[in-house]
Design goal:
Elements (H helix, E strand, L loop, with lengths): L4 H16 L5 H8 L3 H13 L15 H24 L4 H14 L2 H18 L1
Length: 127
């Protein structure tokens, strides 16, 4: 399923926040992304309409099984691109995070796949 850049950013944020705490609230996403709570609510409504988060996201944001599958695929790509920026280009963690997120949301998918392949081959050679 193809997602817009905003959806990808929110899904990655939900994954990162879920890894820290079981309960992810709108205010946590708002702080994490540096956006307003109304913006978070609007995007969560969009994600709910797409079947990626459950409708009742006011108390806690919970991914649907489809949402979990999508997030795992997105996060896999994100991690590999992040490794490139952090370990290969030696960018600090926060900058590598920002650049990886920008890369997977703005570059064509085939370019992202080629970079991921390069990272995998290089890491395999190092081990």
């Amino acid at each position: 399923m193809k997602h817009c850049a905003g959806q990808i950013k929110y899904l990655i944020a939900i994954k990162e926040l879920t890894d820290i705490d079981e309960y992810v609230r709108c205010v946590n996403i708002s702080r994490h992304l540096g956006v307003s709570r109304p913006s978070v609510s609007k995007m969560l409504r969009c994600l709910a309409n797409s079947g990626l988060v459950y409708e009742d996201f006011c108390n806690s944001v919970v991914l649907t099984p489809e949402g979990e599958k999508e997030v795992e695929a997105l996060f896999s790509s994100f991690r590999e691109v992040y490794i490139f920026f952090h370990k290969f280009l030696k960018l600090p963690e926060s900058e590598a995070h920002e650049q990886a997120l920008r890369f997977i949301t703005e570059f064509p998918n085939d370019t992202c796949e080629r970079l991921k392949g390069l990272v995998r081959r290089t890491l395999k050679k190092r081990t």
